[in-house]
Amino acid sequence: MLSKDLNKAKEALLKNELIAIPTETVYGLAGNAFNETAIKKIFKLKKRPLFNPLIVHLKSVEYLHDITCDIPDIALKLANEFWPGPLTLVLKKKDHISDLISAGKKTVAVRVPSHPLTLALLEALDFPLAAPSANPFGSISPTNAEHVLNYFGKELNIILDGGECEKGVESTIIGFENDQPVLFRYGSISIEDIEKITGKLNIIIHSEKAPNSPGMLSRHYAPKTDTYLTENIPELLKSFEGKKVGLLLFQNPIQKNNNITQEILSKSGDFVEAAKNLYAAMHRLDQNNLDVIIAEKLPNIGLGKTINDKLERATKKE
Ligand code: TXA
Ligand code: MG
């Protein structure tokens, strides 16, 4: 059920039940990060493989020291710059953090979200919240409460409704190797903005079998409809003549045609707006009984890189 009742949300969490929470990036499927019953429920409901660790959501930067240790200076600098906000840091975990959350790793992912409803909830709790995105494993992330309702309406008693997510794509994930920052996942803070603090970032290329960050798993964020990515929309359209086609376009519509449904991510060509609209547009197209969705590649700069990364994973053929 959709709700804004923080008391009920707190009650459910104290009983080790799961709820959905709004964040500025995407909605999360949240449970008590200090309780293994709740953590197991997250993996089960999401059908998420146990090798894929969760993010712990804290109420403020001070709590970082309760969860993690040996924090590099540059990590603190990043936390102070971007929290509350869409940055996740992967740091050495303290022993009391469940190995389930970290999928057996010695590190744990943490962030302080900036959505006021979720911050108020965290403030009322004396434990942090473990929360992956509130979608079944591999499918499109939810950016409003209705998306979560469609996925988990039967299973969740409380979906905290915080409206449309402000950023619309997941947090940017930074880990550390020999105290040097490394990008683990493209997200809603651009690499360029992170590099203003860190200098040149290493980008870890994922491995299929043991991904460092399964946001980096090759197929992810995928619509059910057959989906393709291209730099040349008119050319690819020719291959689907007579089919019902959905187009996911960056800025410019193509000529009207009865067989074509179009979603424009940002009429003014603004990456931030495009990121905000990306998943909601994918959800809409996916619900249109189309034969095929064709997405347009964006310029590969700033958040264009993040959007292209998500689109590449959404269109990856197995
Ligand atoms: O914006 C977000 O980050 C959203 C909201 C709800 O906070 N959450 C989110 O969670 O995207 P999820 O579970 O869908 O993605 C978490 C990512 C995964 O790619 C996971 O592999 C990575 O974080 N991760 C978690 N712990 C890690 C660790 N110890 N080392 C490397 N990657 C880690
Ligand atoms: Mg996810």
3D structure, described in words:
With 318 residues, this protein is an alpha/beta fold. It has two domains: 2-203, Alpha-Beta Complex (DHBP synthase); 227-317, 3-Layer(aba) Sandwich (Rossmann fold), CATH 3.40.50.11030. The protein has helices at residues 6-14, 36-46, 64-67, 73-82, 116-124, 145-152, 191-198, 233-238, 271-286, 303-315, and strands at residues 2-3, 19-21, 28-32, 55-57, 68-69, 87-93, 107-111, 129-130, 159-160, 172-177, 180-185, 202-203, 227-230, 245-249, 260-264, 292-296. Strands 2, 3, 4, 5, 6, 7, 8, 10, 11 and 12 form a ten-stranded mixed sheet that branches. The longest helix is centred in the C-terminal third of the chain and has 16 residues, at 271-286. It is globular, with a radius of gyration of 19 Å. The two termini are 35 Å apart. The relative contact order is 0.15. The site of threonylcarbamoyladenylate (TXA) has 30 residues, from strand 6, strand 7, strand 10 and strand 11.
Task: Reconstruct the topology from this structure.
Layout: E1 2-3, H1 6-14, E2 19-21, E3 28-32, H2 36-46, E4 55-57, H3 64-67, E5 68-69, H4 73-82, E6 87-93, E7 107-111, H5 116-124, E8 129-130, H6 145-152, E9 159-160, E10 172-177, E11 180-185, H7 191-198, E12 202-203, E13 227-230, H8 233-238, E14 245-249, E15 260-264, H9 271-286, E16 292-296, H10 303-315
Parallel strand pairs: 1-9, 4-7, 6-10, 11-12, 13-16, 14-15, 14-16
Antiparallel strand pairs: 2-3, 3-8, 4-8, 5-6, 6-7, 10-11
Helix pairs in contact: 1-5, 9-10
The chain binds threonylcarbamoyladenylate and magnesium ion.
